[in-house]
Amino acid sequence: MTDFSAIKVFIFDVDGVLTDGTLLALNSGEQARAFHIRDGYAVRHALRKGYRIAVISGREEEGVRKRLESLDVRDIYLGVDDKMKIFNSYLNTYHLEPATIAYMGDDMPDIEVMRRCAIAACPADAAADVRAISTYTATLPGGHGAVREFIEAVMKQQQTW
Questions:
Q1: Rounded average pLDDT over 5-33
Q2: I need a surface site. Which of 54, 73, 83, 136 has the fewest CB within 10 A?
Q3: β-bridge mates for residue 24, sequence order
Q4: For residues 104 and 42, what is the distance between their CA atoms, to the nearest angstrom?
Q5: Dist CA 13 CA 25 (whole Å)
Q6: Which tens digit of pLDDT belongs to each residue from 131-147?
Q7: Counting Cβ atoms within 10 Å, is residue 152 exposed (0-12), middle (13-18) or buried (19+)?
Q8: Residue 23's pLDDT band (cuts 50, 70, 90)
Q9: Pairing outcome for strands 9-12 and 101-104
Q10: What is the reported pLDDT for 29?
Q11: Is 25 helix (H, G, I), strand (E, B) or coil?
């Protein structure tokens, strides 16, 4: 079993992790995504129990920001070209150690940050290169409860769930 005892911070990608990666192109030009309600519950529950949660995503969409804000997530970084730069800035801003951080990603832009964290996690349907470096692979795919599964596993091991 993976040791989650030091984890105090969760960082998530959006597309392919908090969503299933599907983009619905609407006539208005907006691109809609679907989030799983149980992932949302787990995010809010972890925050209420004192964990930090951040989101780093390459895409900038106002609907995504609004969804994350509705879950009380405050550290939201969207439209990011260099995830490592944002990650380092996040660590410096909050005086965090990589040994306390778990990152869940699903594709190539996540790998560099995943390698710096104590726990690299991914959904079941993550890209093969991401699965290869992950210390935790969820049984569920992105956007279908993988985030909830991961948060719950960490918190249950720490007896905070």
A1: 93
A2: 136
A3: 32
A4: 14
A5: 20
A6: 999 999 999 999 999 99
A7: middle
A8: confident
A9: parallel
A10: 84
A11: strand
Q: What is the DSSP string of 38-59?
A: HHHHHHHHHHHTT-EEEEE-S-
- Cβ 131 vs Cβ 137: under 8 Å: yes
Residues 6+ apart with CB under 8 A from 92: none
pLDDT at 111: 98
Q: What six digits make up the tokens of 68?
A: 């994350």
d(CA 139, CA 148): 11
Token pair listed for 92: 């410096």
β-pair partners for 102:
10, 119
- Classify 102 in phi/psi space as left (phi over 0), alpha (psi -120 to 50) or beta: beta
- Placement of tokens 């930090």 in the chain: 52
What is the reported pTM? 0.96
* Distance in angstroms (rounded) separating the CA atoms of residues 2 and 157: 9
| Residue indicated by tokens 């964990």 | 51
pLDDT given at position 156: 98
Nearest by Cα to 58 from 106, 116, 92, 90: 106
CA distance 13 to 41: 17
* Cα–Cα distance measured from residue 107 to residue 35, given in angstroms and rounded to the nearest whole number: 18
